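Please decode residue identities from the backbone states below.
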């Protein structure tokens, strides 16, 4: 039943149908080894400790992600392989400044149209030692779905 619904959704979205058994277990993306050399898109502090993305964020985009992000037309979809990493640090407030303290985790998303259940993106999270953290990709996607006009990407490129 679930598979039928997913295939129907893929057809409706004009996506290619891939091996159906892959839907449930679309692999979590690895933490890209070189992401610190990617382009910093922007930084942001989510100061509410109850927010799922609490922390001092440094957002990185690889080249395909950057291209879509910077296009004036704000292309509604990113190409497969477009990727973002957010390094999330403990926000440290001192003497009127907020700076990144200890790393909390890195979160990753990689565009992959086969991941239809999560909007065509694969999600993952890693602890500061680089070990995978168990996540519910559906919960990641549920919040990100709010940015539906930008292929569920919240980040903007700031000049
Ligand atoms: C409660 C809402 C919420 C949830 C849940 C959430 N995110 Fe996000 N996410 C955001 C917001 C808001 C931003 C923009 C942050 C910024 O610009 O610093 C963001 C940004 C990102 C980005 C950078 C690209 C983009 O989409 O802007 C990645 C990668 C990311 N999140 C991964 C994840 C992963 C992985 C999970 C699940 C473990 C997750 N997110 C869960 C709200 C959420």
């Amino acid at each position: 039943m679930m598979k039928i619904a997913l295939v129907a959704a893929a057809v409706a979205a004009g996506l290619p149908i891939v091996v159906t058994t892959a839907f449930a277990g679309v692999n979590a993306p690895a933490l890209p080894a070189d992401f610190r050399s990617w382009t910093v898109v922007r930084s942001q502090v989510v100061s509410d400790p109850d927010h799922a993305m609490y922390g001092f964020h440094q957002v990185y985009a690889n080249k395909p992600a950057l291209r879509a992000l910077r296009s004036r037309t704000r292309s509604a979809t990113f190409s497969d392989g477009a990727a973002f990493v957010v390094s999330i640090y403990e926000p440290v407030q001192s003497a009127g400044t907020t700076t990144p303290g200890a790393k909390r985790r890195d979160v990753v998303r990689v565009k992959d149209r086969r991941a239809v259940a999560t909007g065509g993106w694969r999600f993952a999270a890693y602890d500061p030692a680089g070990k995978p953290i168990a996540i519910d990709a559906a919960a990641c996607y549920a919040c990100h779905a709010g940015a539906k006009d930008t292929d569920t990407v919240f980040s903007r490129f700031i000049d």
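Observation: The chain has a mean pLDDT of 85.
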